[in-house]
Amino acid sequence: MIRIELDEAALGATRIAMSPLRDAFCAAHLQLPGRAPSWPYQEWAGHARAVWREDDRLRPLWELFTEGPPGVSDFLMPRPLGTPDVYEELDQLRATDPAFVRAQVAVCYPGMGEEPFLRPYLTDPQAACAALADAYAAWWEEAIAPCWPVMRRLVEDEVLLRARTFATEGVDALFGGLESRARWERPVLELTKYIDAEYAAGERRLVLVPLVFAEGCRLYSTDDPEVLAVSFQARGAAALRERTPGPADGGDRLGLLLGRGRAAVLRELAGPLTTAGLADRLGLAPSTVSEHLSLLAGAGVVTRHRVGRSVYYQLTDTGRSLLALLAGEGVLGTAAA
C-alpha cells in the first residue's frame, strides 16, 4: 500500500497531465510473458505482439523489461510534460542527466551493474538513453501511432473532465472517482500496490496521468525529487476493441424511443465529450454523431460549451433523468459540471 499525504498546498499544486510515452510503456507491459490482455486490448495486442517479438530495434526495451526486476526507474519514463507529442518526451529521455541514470541503475538494479544489458547505462549513459529513446520511437511508430488519434481524444477528454471536476466540485470528487485501486480519506490518498511506501505532505507535488493502457501497468513514479506521478485508467479504452452490436431493440427502451444511434450517444455522455471523441468511442461517422447531438441539444437533453477550438457536449438534468428512467442507469446523482 502506498500512502500519500496531501496538505492544502499540495492539493493546490496537483496537476493532471497526459503522457504518450507512459502509455507506450504500459502497452509494452501487455506483451510480457504471462500477461493476458483483457477484453479492450485484445484486438490491438494481436498486431502489437508481432512488433514486440520481431522488431530488433526494440532490443534496449526488451532487455530492460525482461532481464531486470519488475520495478520501474524514472530514466525509463521522465517527468510527464503534458504534451501530446511523444517525441518531445523522447527528447527529454535523451537529455537525462548521466549521473541520475547511474544512480538509478544502482537503486533499481542492485548488484546487476555488470550485466551486459545494464553496462551501457553506466559506461555511457547518454548513448544508452539515446538508444532507449530510439527503441521507444520504433515501438511507438509500429504499435501505438495508428491508435494515437483515438487515444489522444480519450486522454484529452479525461484531462478536461478531471480538471472540471477538480475546479467545480473539489478534491474529494476528483480523488473519490479516480479508480478502484485508489482510496481517498482526507488528507491521505492510498494506492493499492505490491510495495509499501509513505510520503509526507509537502515532499513533492502530485501529477495525475490518465492512460488508455493503464490496465497494462498502473504506474507510480517516485524517483523525481519534485514530482510524484500517479497514473490511472482513462475511460473509453473499449474504443480500441472490435465493434460489437448493441442491445437488441426489444430490450432497449431508450433505443426504442430515440433510435439506437441516438441512445448510444446519450449513454456515452457521462462526462464532457467532443463530436470526434464520441465518434471514436461508438464507431460512428462524426457527421452522424453531429446530427444526433444537434437533435438531442434541441430537445434539451444535452448542452454544449466551447473550450478553445473544441466544442464539448454533456448531459443536462433532463438527459440524466431520461437515462435513469428508461435505461435504468444511476446517473441522477451526478452533479452537472
Automatic annotation (TrEMBL):
<dbReference type="InterPro" id="IPR036390">
    <property type="entry name" value="WH_DNA-bd_sf"/>
</dbReference>
<protein>
    <submittedName>
        <fullName>Transcriptional regulator</fullName>
    </submittedName>
</protein>
<dbReference type="InterPro" id="IPR011991">
    <property type="entry name" value="ArsR-like_HTH"/>
</dbReference>
<dbReference type="InterPro" id="IPR012318">
    <property type="entry name" value="HTH_CRP"/>
</dbReference>
<dbReference type="InterPro" id="IPR036388">
    <property type="entry name" value="WH-like_DNA-bd_sf"/>
</dbReference>
<feature type="domain" description="HTH arsR-type">
    <location>
        <begin position="242"/>
        <end position="335"/>
    </location>
</feature>
<keyword id="KW-0804">Transcription</keyword>
<dbReference type="InterPro" id="IPR001845">
    <property type="entry name" value="HTH_ArsR_DNA-bd_dom"/>
</dbReference>
<dbReference type="GO" id="GO:0003677">
    <property type="term" value="F:DNA binding"/>
</dbReference>
<dbReference type="InterPro" id="IPR051011">
    <property type="entry name" value="Metal_resp_trans_reg"/>
</dbReference>
<dbReference type="GO" id="GO:0003700">
    <property type="term" value="F:DNA-binding transcription factor activity"/>
</dbReference>
<keyword id="KW-0805">Transcription regulation</keyword>
<dbReference type="Pfam" id="PF12840">
    <property type="entry name" value="HTH_20"/>
</dbReference>
<keyword id="KW-0238">DNA-binding</keyword>
